[in-house]
Amino acid sequence: MDGGTALAKVLASGERSFKKEIEKLLLSDGDTFHGEGILAITKALLQSGISYVGGYPGAPMSHLIDVLADASEEILQPMGIHFEQSASEAGAASLLSASVTYPIRGAVTWKSVVGSNVASDALSNLGSSGVVGGSLIILGDDYGEGSSIMQERTYTFAMKSSIPLIDPRYNMTRMVELTEQAFELSEACSMPIFLNMRIRACHLTGTFRTKDNKVALYNANNPVPEQHYDLEKIVLPPATYRHEKAKFDERLPAARRFAQENSINEFFPGDGSRYGIITQGGTYSVVLRALRRLGMADAFGNTEMPILCLNLVYPLIPEEIETFITHKDQILVVEEGNPNFIESQIAEIAQRGKIECVIHGKDLLPMAGEYVSNVVREGVASFLTEVLPDGQQSVAGLAEAAIENEKVVAQSYIVEPMPPRPPSFCTGCPERPIMAALKLLMKERGKFHISMDIGCNLFGSLPPFNVGNTVMGYGLSLASSGAIGPNLDQPNVAIMGDGGFWHNGLTTGVINARWNEYDSVLIILDNGYAAATGQHLLPSSGITPKGLSSLVTIENALRGVGVKWIKYVDSYSLQDAKNVIADALDARDQGLRVVISNNECMLARQRRERPAKAEALNTGKTVIQEIFGVDEEVCTGDHSCMRLNGCPSLTLKESSDPFKETPVAHVNDSCVACGHCGEVAHAAQLCPSFYKAEAIRNPGVLRTIFSKINRSLLTAVGA
Hints:
The chain contains 27 helices and 24 strands.
């Protein structure tokens, strides 16, 4: 199956539509916007007079790309805004070069640390040369959250390249204001700006008063009249030395002045007592929640505790810090993640200013990990024990005791430990059979090393497959296997999706393998889009983000760099997949061997077919639906099928046979009829309990007559 063609059908079917969101982007001055935070930020971009916008999709920022792609014809093109879904974060960051010498505003987006890692070369150059037009980098931050990224902070990138970093407080009006101010800040200090959008900020729901969308002076419909040449903007010596000096003598001081003059940071006075809290904007709501649970704040945000909320977390403004901590005995710095950059800087400001104030932070709060409500509450409670007069400690103590009692009550409802539930492939995922084939091959041949990639395929490392050994990054599986194969005396086996292939796999993996003559097997799981980020388009999807036809293919790219051994498999034909991968493993004298598993995501297929089936039923047409199931009389309760499948639709139920003590396998209503469970069972020679049947709706006269005749004959013979 051609994954690109399949995706084009999905898009054409109208299943992927953001019509309601686009309507909100068209709101005028004085209207009321109601929706999610990420859509509010998208509206703020249009209100800021941008000339271009792009990015690479990744949670929790993917929706920005999705909506703008659909809004291209209706909103972006009339406003002259160039839109681009970049092939990687490095490509997205490079878009900002348009603002290095020209007075045009632009914004790009990607998934926080992992995206910044890829974009770091461009970020370093932007941080050195500086910009003329306002430039905004919107980072989708999901530190903690049980998500896919390593637990690192964007703060390091900000400090490294002297790029101001905004971490907005969770208030929709404030988030929109800070987005608009970020462009002004960028132009005031001649630097791009990081806007750190945490996952809760992206998905909160709220309202704000909108403004008219602003058409930029220079845009695609009214281009800059002439090109501009400025040798000082080229990042080469001796200009680089002047750039470095300008960062600290001009740009960062300008950023601090703008932030002060425009009240980017916020002060909440409380009762004016001799203690207080300094927190990042993104943790302000968590601090308030903690104070409320400790009896020191109400539901409306009113608190006894003085709080300095840092929406601009880099650079810090020493004057604001000094004003807040002067005449205070002790303060608590709530800084999520490590190292404790902000706490250390505040301690240095206090020391340089000879301010006698005890700075608490990581001594009362964890060094690492997400600062959820309970974590911050415990830290704030410890701080209150330090600072409150003896007569007031009882308030916090009573609140703490009440919370502990709530925990005891909650735990009483859990009679036994909850079973682990590792992430897994969706129902009907075409990647699951490939993992089953690899597991069966290992059973026959012995174990071999498999380098995995970022994306859905990474679930193959988890139960029930356990076939992945390492992962280094998006599109890096093949490159990461380079030294493993020779030292294990076996072929390098690498897996990546089509998203990883186009992101980094072709240039870093395939070309590296060809140049260094890897004895390698690369399995590309091609479903026509980057599924893990929400079914986003790729160069090989068959369609561009703007809806135009695209003829880029994975095979042509591979053959273009000299790969000769390329074979396709239908992943749902398990035995065929197993045989082709075995052939690739054995062809060790033919260099890089590539197996392309080409199949559309089954859930995407269902979303495309359901409306068509519903329409057919409404018009009286016959609809035939395949149904898979397990004959519980045949099932022995061995459950080996599950250990080689892992589909969420394949589960257990109590047997109706009183002589069977163990539950039997059962296919539930979530099944999408891919047939893989039965295919696995037969391929592994496990059992014949799986069956396939057909459910016929609107059968018609002839089918009804034949069905009655068949039932009569079966009754007659006693069947």
